Predict the structure.
Amino acid sequence: MLNEKQLSRIKRIKDFYMEEPVFKHHVSYVRVMRQRLNFMRAYINSIGTEWIGPAVTPYNTELLKSRPYTARLRLAYAEAAILNNMEPMIHDDELLVGRPDYTPLTKEEEDEYKNLELAMRGAPNTTYLTLGHMSLDYPKLLRVGINGLIAEVKARKDALDLNDPENLPKCEFYEGCLMELEAELVLQRRYAEKLKEKAEKATGEKKEHFEKLYEIVSRVPAEPARTFREALQAIHFFSFTLWELYYFGRIDQYLYPYYKADLEAGRITPDEALELLCCFLLLPDAYIMPNVAYDSMIGGKDRQGNIVENDITFMALDAAEIVRSGTGKIALAFGKDNSDRLLRRAIQVNATGATQPAIYDDDLITEGLIKIGISPEDAHYYCNTGCTEITPIGCSGIYPCAPYHNIANALLRAMRENLDATSTKPILESFEKILHREVQEQQLYINRRQMERSRNGGEPLRVSCLVDDCLSRGKAIDEGGARYNHIEPTFVGVSNVVDSLVTIETLVFNEKKLTMQELLDVVDSNYEGKEDLRQYILNRIPHYGVNDKNADKYAAMVSNAIIGACKGVTTYRHSFLVPGTFTYIENATLGRVTQATPDGRLKGTPLAASSSATAGREIKGPTAAVLSATSWDHSHYMGGIVINLKFAPNQMSGENEDNVVTLIRAFLERKGMEVQINCISNETLRDAQKHPENYKDLLVRVSGFSAYFTHLPNDIQQEVIDRNEQSFN
Amino acid sequence: MSSPSTEKEIRGNIFNIQRYCTHDGPGIRTTVFLKGCPIRCAWCHNPESHDFKSEIGYNESSCIKCGKCIAVCPVHCHTVMDGKHVFDRANCIRCFKCVEVCPSALEKIGKSVTVQEVLDEVAEDKIFYKDAGGITLSGGEPLSQAEFAVGLLKGAKEMGITTCVETGGFVGYEVFEKVLPYVDLFLYDYKLTDSGLHKKYTGVDNTLILENLFRIDESGAKIILRCPIIPGVNDTEEHFSGIARVANSLKNLIKVEIEPAHTIGDMKYEQMGYGRPDLKYGVPDSEEVLLCIDKIKKYTSVTVKKS
């Protein structure tokens, strides 16, 4: 375990990150203002505004040469401009460096920003749709360095026969890659210079600290990493300049050899490595938008199918417990061949309220990925990207969460189309058809966006340098260069629809208490004057989440309808759809604009989170909740599934630890895809609502991601509390 | 001897099946609460367990004053006066018609079920039991419904599920004889050492209870002794040494578990329409509990723990 000095350093860094950057400067997916300003300046400048004459003269040839002449290259040029213009940010405590430039804009720059935004309206909208949400081939970066990548790109570019028009887009792609990669080197150099300056000014321990860092930053990511610390610095440096979700992937697999070599050579102690890993996990708090998961995955198996459990696997869990970051978290892949020791440790970390690691069923996921045509090697080597959306590492051009479909609305429409139904069967059939139409309509929209991006660019091109098979095919991710390109739409309101169907069956068909039209009238009026009926629905009709055979049967049927709705829909890159039920916070945002539903849910309140039971309805405890949650096949849902379990802190410690281990084992045995744990008392949460200032770093699991509780909107806060209310006693 | 199929059809009255119980024996357990108890402990926190017959629970805070119960009650027990729902239990004939129509507040406490029905639900959680967990019979006094209890225990053992019985011990020994082959562990209450006080606070003296305890111990049953600690009633040196004395003389005792008093049951007394219990006591904090444990440990080397 870390000593006082190490722990207090970590605390200082954490406080600094939380006080300073992301929370203040990040506006949704828009990048940090200063970087964005530099981007726009370069982009507009690269278009050029002056008249350069009709003929090719030495003057305008020169001018054209210095200017990127296609939309994609302008984008790469502007990307490079950000890197070229960034001010190195270094805090005295940091053991790993590289953060965005948060210097606020001056008054003049703000005006310029506004003007440039207007001017940019003419540019292709290339950043629309998902960026990131994938893990890169960081092991390759460590192996060859940016210089190695540059050499490869140059060689491939030089080998092109430019007399063949087919090769022009390839050439353009490689050129763009080079612009960006070379700019990375410029930024790296500037960091090194700044560190040198600091070392020169400092004395004693500080001087040593900066000299050491200078040595490391002079080397990586340009050159291959030689040590554990160089490896961490290299991947962090590459990834922070993308300030988006480009996940670190299986850190225990590729970091372990560096650690082992250091250890054997006496270059590092386990505690020093742990401290570095802590710093590494903290950094995303400084540059990733708040309230998303930036997980690194551990455990599971390697590409060849061998179990992975090494010192770094366990060290990552230790680091997660110490750091308790809301962003840089650990996720655990766990299969039947993984050890009890690992699972137990994972549960202990969860018991501290660290809200991590979420646990993923490694066997089920590999099976699910193979089912959709992913090679067995790639199917072992996946991670959760976004939140719980599964993508293979370093070869993914997959779009997760595109888009969020509100299936409660689809059910209401299906009810209206089946006023004379005598069973739920035709309603389910209509539901699937309606959903299919909606999916198709939305997909057309997404496809056109993909088409736009394939022409004019989207993902920074340097990302494609670490995604197979982009370089070998000479195609960027947006052109379909990645090995896998399916799209993962996600479906919100699963348990609302399941419970609604049970309600319809009970009230309209079995008990004949009212007709379909009457039930619709009741929900359309938001249960106005029908509170007794609503209470009856809530209290007397069995719901999803209590191991009720009938409700669970409907869960399987709804799941099948969703799978059916995705069938036969083709994406722009000639791929297909793979559904998920992951909801992020969209269950609340969509819920706000959704009318009352037949499950007793009132207008405007959140829809159910992911495929967990509706908040407060798991009244038979965690075993029943787990049985319901795993009563249907998760293997088709590589787009992500979230099952929440919640415990009071004392229910996870001492002798109860065994029971939680058993519970999670059973969940995985029953092929549950993902399970995450909230271990925090409601008194704490309520107090945090009243005194947010005292709970700045209080973490809760929301839905596939953890969040700082006090940064969440009120209705999501309430939903977390409601869900917790049922904390299993 | 009844045939296996008819054994599974034996009916009993239960008031709850609680899953994921982690305090009633080892592992993850499903606890079946059998209704009815022959003794009345003054500190009992399960008033719904007293009566052997089904009754009606009423939760005022869940009542939406819809008036449905008023319309169906044949003997006019339900009225709304000044916006308040009044339930006249004295005249109630327990026809449960009101429960059928009530959307939220009225509950039938106690359900007649067959052995098979209970076993079906218990079997649902089999994947969670592993080697440790299983079924626990509790109550009320589960052994008061002897045949039903035997059916459940035997059936569970047939399914390879381990069994615990939580008992107050106040039944004839012949019942113990019947269940003994099917019980892996007894959670046996030991409430008061002084027989007179025992009678005062529970309505019966402890002679039979102790006799049964030692007899099942003789026959090899595994036992956890469960001792409620009620401040002002049994938190005395005499009782602590008494617990240790009993513990020391048992051959198959696994440990002593201390169950500190709590007042969680108070609300339930109102919901069941019973008056609040006369006995008032404080709830010991965790330090006081540790102190009790230390006091017992002075006299014995067996494990003493908080349950």
